[in-house]
Specification:
single chain; two-stranded antiparallel sheet; 463 residues; 7% strand; disordered N terminus; Glutaredoxin
Length: 463
């Protein structure tokens, strides 16, 4: 080659010969390939962890491990355990996967402190072998910790002791706070639960804890804590002390537990306006007093053993007996609601509409907040519009809705539809058409559109 005759080396067992230069070139190429391969392998070894981290920048959920293996790993790494309880049908669960668990900040915080695992609470026909193996543990977790809301987050110590819980989809900032609380004995739900049951919780801590237990879904135990606080602490305070330490949220959540024998009830009855201001609820005292009158004076007469009496009640006799104990205003309100309940059970619509209108005239309607507005709208539509034929009752409904359509809300179109139908039933057709058109312009609704066509044909919209 290169003008020279190349020497040859005969391959053993071969009839052909290969030039030395060619063999040397092959060896050189092999060496180059080996060097390149080593570089590639080295690069893979270096980059693979980085690639995995890029793929798992959020929360790392363990896979293929049993509960015992999770416990072992948590002990070895001195970490807490986080279980994400989810269901395949749960939309909020999927939202947590896409946003919160995928967030870099959440991943860094959780991965450094927790061994995390996802546990599927439901079952499907396409569940993986890993999910199938967890069926037994999943059922145990669901039963033991009353996992009834998805998603639910359970937090355990490295020893497997339950410490904290939370439920519902939340933003990453809130989820991080939940995780922080899971490691803080002052905020750990189950640690506080144990503290209460051992009689070590102060009365000052009980109101907030009762609310927390109620939020977790254990209504019966929340009532037990609240009753303890009412009867063994609040009832022993004087009125000045009561007014100083009153917890508005607690009183609103658990006021229905009071009885007429409680000192707290006496303060509410005698200084209702003061208590209303303290709990920042306009009709709080009135509602508590009405509830107690209903439970202690009315229900035993009209619904003995939780079953309605069949014969028509002697309303006058009942009223006179209650007025011996309570102010007339509270008695009248309680009896109006009792009449509405009793007549509703009998489907006596003339009496239902009569006392609905009476309640509106004498006690007004609660339109505070969007919920109050919706309840008022539904009451007027379902009772007065659909069932009343009396002009004065229909006029009362019109006056209520006239005020409601003035207020801004996300349900204005529905309120306008109710208002339009009442106007139409009262014979004010032109005004009714105007308001129904406004409702449809604001938000199209098939039923409202049908009502508009009926109005144009002078056909009833309440049938």
């Amino acid at each position: 080659m290169c003008g020279k005759t190349a020497s040859t080396v005969r391959r053993r067992g071969a009839g052909a010969s290969v030039p030395v230069s060619t063999l040397q070139l092959d060896l050189h190429s092999t060496q180059i390939k080996n060097v390149h391969m080593k570089k590639i392998i080295l690069l893979i070894e270096i980059c693979l962890p980085l690639f995995v981290c890029a793929q798992e920048k959020g929360v790392h959920f363990e896979k293929g491990l049993s509960w015992q293996q999770i416990l072992g790993k948590a002990k070895a790494e001195n970490k807490y355990i986080f279980i994400d309880c989810f269901a395949t049908w749960c939309g909020p669960c999927k939202q947590m996967d896409k946003t919160v668990y995928a967030a870099k900040g959440v991943g860094e915080y959780i991965n450094a402190r927790f061994i995390s695992i996802k546990v599927q609470m439901d079952s499907t026909q396409i569940d993986s072998p890993e999910v199938l193996e967890w069926y037994g543990d999943a059922k145990m977790i669901q039963r033991t910790y009353q996992v009834n809301v998805m998603p639910t987050y359970l937090f355990f110590s490295s020893e497997g002791q339950i410490m904290h819980r939370e439920s519902g989809a939340v933003p990453d900032s809130i989820f991080l706070k939940v995780a922080q609380h899971a490691m803080d004995p002052k905020h750990q739900y189950y640690t506080r639960l144990k503290k209460y049951r051992m009689g070590q919780m102060s009365y000052q801590e009980m109101p907030r804890f009762a609310i927390l237990v109620k939020e977790k879904g254990d209504m019966k135990f929340a009532d037990t804590i609240a009753a303890n606080y009412f009867h063994n602490y609040l009832d022993k305070l004087n009125e000045r002390e009561f007014n100083r330490i009153i917890d508005a949220d607690f009183m609103i959540s658990f006021g229905f537990l009071l009885s007429s024998k409680d000192n707290v009830f006496n303060w509410i009855y005698n200084d209702g306006k003061v208590v209303d201001n303290l709990v920042k609820s306009k009709n709080y005292s009135r509602n508590v007093i009405e509830h107690i009158i209903t439970v202690e004076e009315i229900n035993p007469v009209l619904w003995p053993n939780n079953k309605s009496i069949e014969e028509k009640p002697d309303w006058d006799k009942l009223m006179m007996s209650i007025k011996l104990k309570y102010n007339k205003v509270f008695v009248d309100l309680a009896l109006v609601d009792a009449r509405l309940k009793w007549y509703s059970e009998k489907s006596d619509w003339p009496e239902i509409t009569k006392y609905t209108v009476k309640k509106i005239h004498e006690f007004g309607v609660d339109t505070i907040g969007i919920l109050g507005k919706i309840v008022t709208n539904n009451l007027v539509y379902l009772v007065i519009f659909e069932h009343s034929t009396k002009k004065q009752e229909i006029h009362t409904g019109i006056q209520v809705m006239k005020e409601l359509v003035k207020e801004e809300s996300g349900f204005q179109a529905g309120f306008m539809d109710t208002y339009a139908n009442l106007l139409y039933k009262a014979g004010r057709i032109r005004k009714a058409l105007e308001w129904e058109k406004r409702a449809l312009k604001l938000e199209y609704d098939k039923e409202a559109a049908q009502n508009l066509e009926k109005m144009k044909r002078h056909a009833p919209t309440w049938q």
